[in-house]
Amino acid sequence: ADLIALDLRHPRLAATTARTLRADLAFSAAPDCVRATWVAGRPVIVDGRHPAGDATIDAFLRVMRRLDA
Question: Against a cut of 0.70, is the pTM above it?
Fold first, then answer.
């Protein structure tokens, strides 16, 4: 990503300060701390969700059901 927006109010980052930000991101942050990402000026993740996320999960579940049948 060219730009990442983080949720600094997320419980994993709530105690972060300017001095500890890099270490907290490296050792405490989780994927759900990411609120948005942009690549080449285009949004990829918005409100913590990828636009194709639901369709990808649905397709995965269909495949898993077929394999389980």
Answer: no
